Amino acid sequence: xxxxxxxxxxxxxxxxxxxxxxxxxxxxxFCEKYAKKQKGEWGYRASWKRxxxxxxxxxxxxxEAWGPDYENCPEKYQKRLAEIDAxxxxxxxxxxxxxxxxxxxxxx
Length: 108
What we know:
This protein is mainly alpha-helical. The chain has six helices and no strands.
């Protein structure tokens, strides 16, 4: 891979394929995948609200305002959830193949 002079750029370029398909991810689908509590379990709504507020860097009140099924969640947050999902997928692939940050650094 050709170095651009800025070591961060080549690493970002490696992640572009993951973001290309990261259109939008409904908050409910995100929580079903990453939350400790599953839908229907006692306390899952509070758990999901905390998770979404944390990963999106918004208040829990903001998450509450999206409605019980997150139907009013703005597109920009759904896009961010898709990006986070893509990063988590990339992380799993790196782990599966025994790759690390040192490997990525060596690509520069």
